[in-house]
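User: Please fill in residues for this 43-position structure.
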């Protein structure tokens, strides 16, 4: 899986949802760390 500007914003939305709606701040950290470890695809 490669990271593009479109998927990056979706990952951040998911992280926000997990942290605030599901009240799991550690889940947010895991999503962001996983996202940052993905290779970035240039458009």
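Assistant: Residues filled in for all 43 positions:
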């Amino acid at each position: 899986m490669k990271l593009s500007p479109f998927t990056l914003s979706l990952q951040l939305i998911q992280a926000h949802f997990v942290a605030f709606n599901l009240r799991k701040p550690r889940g947010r950290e895991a999503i962001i760390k996983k996202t940052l470890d993905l290779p970035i695809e240039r458009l």
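For context: The mean pLDDT is 83.
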